[in-house]
Each structure stands twice: as structure tokens, then as C-alpha cells.
Design brief:
5-stranded mixed beta sheet; 30 strands; about 50% strand; Exo-alpha-sialidase
């Protein structure tokens, strides 16, 4: 067999050297921080009175020393009904009596909850009707009574202008729902959660010549409101994150959140009085913060996670004891994250069971005092756990 020409050997050696150099020049992906492992305790939520069915846990909240979890029950035929639970310590729970008033209300699954000192309110929906659209409604609870469906006209949340009614917030100024109508971001307001008024088509809140807006979450700021969402620029294909602020729910101011590669602000809370928002951007999740009293001066302070195999989403964000806890989805799994420095750095939180990131699953979180409650549904069963808030310095 003839020997290879020396120049051929040199060419191969040089090529290998170039490849090795190229491999060394690619920066290594930073390792994910060590996970936090809280001492989880399983929580048993009793099955409410009535027809049998498995629980569907969708959301949780804490305020005024009381915990709440909401969702529904589903039977073997797929029929659903609303359900809610409460606890004074996060460990021992009781089912709240539920009083539905409409055909669809009796089939609602409650998907969002908020509370304040004088009670709790929730949003529920059931797909139905000729077009198969969600039939959405609100619910209100006061201590000592049942959780009652609030009567409302069909077009308050539905009708030809309907898009979404996503999250519910409570504060000294009343109650507010963040969502969208056909012309962009919209809100619904109420002094007592006993009946909402839709606020749509408002300047700076709704879409205009700059593009179409959407609202995803809200938080009370004093007696006013802060809403976060996104803008799809006119003629554009990539979202950019926005925040909207108002003292009365009627007049709004718009502020852009810095994001070089686009994205959306999907959840917002107050941490030590400062608004903090989290949302998906290219490559992971971004964290923005604004000074107290200056909701127009947002800056990006941190980020975490990485792009997954599907659409990134933030499904929960809470603040307590100086810590932030976020629930996210990456197209494959729902996950928890915790930050002790205002959102600059984050560590993953291990939960007792895996939760897939798909439409029939849920992972929600609530925090209060030194406690952390997680409710989860993997599409086949629902479970809940309670733990002390993790110390991220451990």
C-alpha cells in the first residue's frame, strides 16, 4: 500500500488542530446553580361534599394569615365542578362551600385566586357553547359564607370582543382583573369583587398605532395598580415587554421594559415595596425591577433558566421574607426557582413530583410569612406540599 504524501499528512494534522482550537474557543455553558431542597410536607385537601371526582388544583394565595387553593373536581366522564379550600396554617385544610348560580358556573374550574383582609375572589371558566369558547366568570368569598358565583352578563368576559381574562389582584383600591379584548390590553375593576366593570379601549393601555398590547398579570400598588404585559409592534413579529400603571384603573401610563431581544413580562409582585416582574426572553427568563413609587423606571436586574424545547412561560411569582419564588414552564417541564437578592441570581427548587409543561397540567405557588405552598397537577392527579421558605444561602 503506498504511503500518503507528506503534505497530505500535514494538511490532516493542521485541520485537526484548527478543529481543536475551534472547540476550545466555544465558551462553556455556565453550570446551573445547585438546587434548593426544602423539607416538603404533603398536604391533604379534603374532597368537597357532592359528586365524587378527583381534585384539579390550579392556583393558590395567602393573605391575612390564611391560605387558599382553588381549582375543581372532575369525574370519570370528564364533567367538572368548581372547588376551593382554605387553611390557617398551610397544613390542615377544609373545603369551602360553593354556590354556583349558572349552567356554566356549575361546571367551572377556578384558575386564578387573589385575597385581601376581608375575603377572597377567584376566576373560573368552562369551555362551551356553539364556538367552544371559555365561559368565564368571577367568584367571591367572605368569612363565614360560601364561595359564590357573581352573576354577570355574557359579554362582560365573553362575546365578540373577548380574548382573555387572566389574573386577579386585590388591594386597598379594590379588585382588578388583567386580560385583553380585541383592541388590546384591558382590565376589569370592582370595589368589592361583587361585580366587575370592564375597562377597554383605554389610551396607553389598549393597542394603538404602535401595535397591539396584552396584559397578563397585576399587582396593587398602594390604592392604585400595576399591570404587566407585552406589545406586538405594528408590522412586527416579536413581542416586547410592557408595564402599565394607574391610580384609579381608568387612566393609564405605559412604560417599556428593557429587552434587547424582545420578550414579555408575564408576572409581577412587590418585593420590599419595589415592583419586580419576570418574563420569558430569548434564551431564558428575565427579571426587571422598578424603584418604589417610580413604576416607569424599569431596569433589568437578572435572569435565569434556559430556552427549552417549547414556548417559555412564567406561571407564578410570589414574594415573602425578602425572597422571590417563580414557577415557570419551558415546553417540557414546570419548574420552581428562588431568589434571595431581589431577582439578580436564582436557584432551582426541587419539588417532590415532576410536572409536565402542557395544557392539562399546572404548577402554582403561594407564600406567606415563612411558609411556601405549592399545588401541582400533572394531568392525572393533583397534589400539594408545604415547606418553610428555602434559605438560598444554604
Amino acid at each position: 500500500m503506498p504511503l500518503p504524501h507528506p503534505r497530505s499528512v500535514l494538511a490532516v494534522v493542521a485541520g485537526v488542530a484548527v478543529l481543536l482550537a475551534a472547540c476550545r474557543s466555544v465558551p462553556e455553558r455556565p453550570a446551573e446553580p445547585a438546587p434548593v431542597r426544602p423539607a416538603w410536607r404533603a398536604v391533604e385537601l379534603p374532597v368537597p361534599a357532592g359528586a365524587a371526582g378527583r381534585p384539579l388544583l390550579r392556583d393558590a394565595a395567602h393573605c391575612a394569615g390564611r391560605w387558599y387553593a382553588v381549582g375543581g373536581l372532575v369525574d370519570g366522564a370528564g364533567e367538572t365542578r368548581p372547588a376551593a379550600w382554605s387553611s390557617s396554617d398551610g397544613l390542615s385544610w377544609s373545603a369551602l362551600p360553593v354556590r354556583a348560580q349558572t349552567f356554566y358556573g356549575r361546571q367551572h374550574v377556578l384558575y386564578a385566586v387573589a385575597c385581601r383582609d376581608d375575603g377572597m375572589a377567584a376566576l373560573g371558566a368552562k369551555t362551551g357553547g356553539v364556538h367552544g369558547n371559555p365561559r368565564t366568570g368571577s367568584w367571591s368569598w367572605r368569612p363565614g359564607g360560601p364561595l359564590r358565583e357573581v352573576p354577570a352578563g355574557f359579554e362582560l368576559f365573553g362575546g365578540p370582543r373577548a380574548v382573555s381574562a387572566g389574573r386577579l389582584a386585590a388591594g386597598p383600591g379594590g379588585w382588578l382583573i388583567a386580560g385583553a379584548r380585541t383592541d388590546g390590553a384591558a382590565v376589569w375593576t370592582s370595589p368589592d369583587a361583587g361585580g366587575f366593570v370592564v375597562r377597554e379601549g383605554l389610551p396607553e393601555l389598549a393597542g394603538d398605532g404602535r401595535g397591539r398590547t396584552a396584559a397578563y398579570d397585576a399587582a396593587a400598588v398602594g390604592s392604585g395598580w400595576l399591570v404587566v404585559g407585552s406589545l406586538l409592534p405594528a408590522g412586527g413579529t416579536a413581542l416586547t415587554p410592557l408595564a402599565f400603571s394607574s391610580v384609579d384603573g381608568r387612566s393609564w401610563r405605559r412604560a417599556a421594559l428593557p429587552a434587547d431581544s424582545g420578550g414579555a413580562a408575564e408576572r409581577v409582585v412587590l418585593r420590599d415595596g419595589e415592583p419586580t416582574a419576570v418574563g420569558p426572553v430569548r434564551g431564558g427568563f428575565a427579571v426587571w425591577r422598578a424603584p418604589a413609587g417610580r413604576p416607569e423606571q424599569w431596569r433589568r436586574v437578572g435572569g435565569f433558566g434556559a430556552a427549552g424545547p417549547g414556548v417559555l412561560s412564567v406561571t407564578g411569582l410570589v414574594a415573602s421574607g425578602g425572597r422571590l419564588v417563580a414557577a415557570t414552564g419551558d415546553g417540557a417541564d414546570r419548574r420552581l426557582w428562588v431568589s434571595g437578592d431581589g431577582g439578580v441570581s436564582w436557584r432551582p427548587v426541587i419539588v417532590p413530583a415532576a410536572v409536565p409543561d402542557r395544557g392539562d397540567a399546572a404548577l402554582a405557588v403561594a407564600a406567606g410569612g415563612a411558609g411556601l405552598l405549592v399545588v401541582a397537577d400533572d394531568g392525572e392527579s393533583s397534589r400539594a406540599w408545604w415547606a418553610m421558605l428555602p434559605d438560598v444561602d444554604e
